[in-house]
Amino acid sequence: MAVMSSPPETTSYAADLDAVRAAAERIAPYAHRTPVLTSGAIDRVAGRRLWFKCENFQKIGAFKFRGATNCVLSLTDDEARRGVVTHSSGNHAQALALAARHRGITAHIVMPTTSPEVKCAAVREYGGVIHPCPPTLADRERVADVVLAETGGCFVHPYNDPRIIAGQGTCVLELLDEVPDLDAIIAPIGGGGLMSGTCIAARGVRPGIRLFAAEPAGADDAARSLAAGRLIPQTGPDTIADGLLTSLGDLTWPIVRDHVERVITVADDEIVAAMRLIMQRMKIVVEPSGAVSLAAALALAEPGVERLGVIVSGGNVDLDRLPW
Amino acid sequence: MAVMSSPPETTSYAADLDAVRAAAERIAPYAHRTPVLTSGAIDRVAGRRLWFKCENFQKIGAFKFRGATNCVLSLTDDEARRGVVTHSSGNHAQALALAARHRGITAHIVMPTTSPEVKCAAVREYGGVIHPCPPTLADRERVADVVLAETGGCFVHPYNDPRIIAGQGTCVLELLDEVPDLDAIIAPIGGGGLMSGTCIAARGVRPGIRLFAAEPAGADDAARSLAAGRLIPQTGPDTIADGLLTSLGDLTWPIVRDHVERVITVADDEIVAAMRLIMQRMKIVVEPSGAVSLAAALALAEPGVERLGVIVSGGNVDLDRLPW
């Protein structure tokens, strides 16, 4: 648990509340204000009241559209003209492709040749240009460097970027606008873009709010980092929550370190059970990574957390391969 | 197609707009005002703009809660005291159980011994008392008669009842309140409770609106009835849309006959494709019967239907047995 003896200096972080508010204004014409849903049945299971911020209803089916859009819209015309570049096979790829299309610029997406065709098709549908690469991180970075050199485009990291962090923070700004009197918020943590943005936004508008991170046990770098007090990169992740495999970044880590009270790790079977519970009871489709926060909320044994905000981060799941 | 030479006399029907409005007021403290969702991706597939009224988010996961609640709340205290009785293995059973619990009375549900345990558990969860019976309609009716005689309770038909018809009509009242300028509405048709309530409510507030019914080809009694101009009961239904197997009733049929412009029948593979499309694109869980209206909307080749309301009737699907 991170113990804060004195309030952290927010100005030293990659983003602050003003940046989140500016991002909210910037993305408003493009992003959905997603609904906040509740379920009496799940409340009874959880033993507390939960408010679900449903980013599975966000454009491209995940919160990633917020950060990508904020980033693309933050570029100067001169920067934007040469397009944006990233390497990703996940929601960030689709998010950047669609954000770029809204600005009328090209998104170059470096994707491993092993990516499922459905994910490539989604990127193409949003107008992204795919650059195939061998399926290693080194190859992804090498090919991305080539594309960057050829295009002069702007690299957009999926989470370790101030504009991304600020953009992801807009989600919780909306949640607290709709349900101001939450005791705590729980969000999934992978690279920490959503979690750090959540921290900045939530503590900005509600300094006393408690913040929890939800992490798969099979990719628990955040839990280990917080326990050790230093950033420990993730190696060999093994979890069904394929959106949460990455390590924290040097911009997201200090925010998480100073603001997250505890990381709750959950096993894959808890994640699958939470995913099923959401789909059965709330009638909404969530991906495993999107159900991690409910799994952790069900495992959370903190007194005083009566009213809990739960970020459902996305809903892009392969309906042919539901994990039960 | 039903040709109307003169406006039908609405007073001769089992329900009118006043009854629907009274029902809306009656059920408001208990029923959800369900969201109306849109999807740009599905609009592109459909070639028109669609507004989905999402009754999968209704209490018990289906519109049936509206009619059941209106019915239970319409009883006098003396009637209510002896409880309510029905035979059903579907959403009506759960709806009546929960509606009865809200009034603090007993719901007796006659259910075939072949009903899936998950459905029995749901009825029990809502406080319903289950009376098992052999799996034939004759047995269901016989056991229900016994229960009625023993309890003196009030029988609540799943659709052929003025209070049910008025209750189901509240759904479209909300839809037109939120999106007043629809050209047409399409709703699934089984026994006709939802469709007839939709007709009464929609024509009541928007006399010129066009009304379409969506029906599985494997249970097409409404299409055949409308073609013949007389009520033809359903025999031997064979469709995945298990909420739409029943015949029209003598109260629902005249309303359907006079107000529904056309019944669009869809094959099971179209229903499954629509169900998948909704889940993939809209991230909401729908049951096959709930996807029939989208399947029909995609098959609808009517000019002049630019803005179409689509009733998604329910979301109670077995997640272990998704039909693809």
Overview of the molecule:
The structure is a homodimer of 324-residue chains. By secondary structure, chain A is α/β, with parallel strands linked by helices. Mean pLDDT of chain A is 94; it is low at 1-5. Chain A folds into two domains: 17-63 and 162-316, Rossmann fold (3-Layer(aba) Sandwich), CATH 3.40.50; 83-152, Rossmann fold (3-Layer(aba) Sandwich), CATH 3.40.50. In chain A, the strands form two sheets. In chain A, strands 1-2-10-7-8-9 form a six-stranded mixed sheet, sandwiched between helices. Chain A has a four-stranded parallel sheet with strand order 5-4-3-6, with helices on both faces. In chain A, helix 3 (64-74) packs across helix 8 and helix 5 (91-103) runs parallel beside helix 6. The first copy, chain A, is built from 13 helices and ten strands. Helix content of chain A is 44%, strand content 15%. Chain A is globular. The interface between A and B is medium-sized, with 17 and 17 residues.
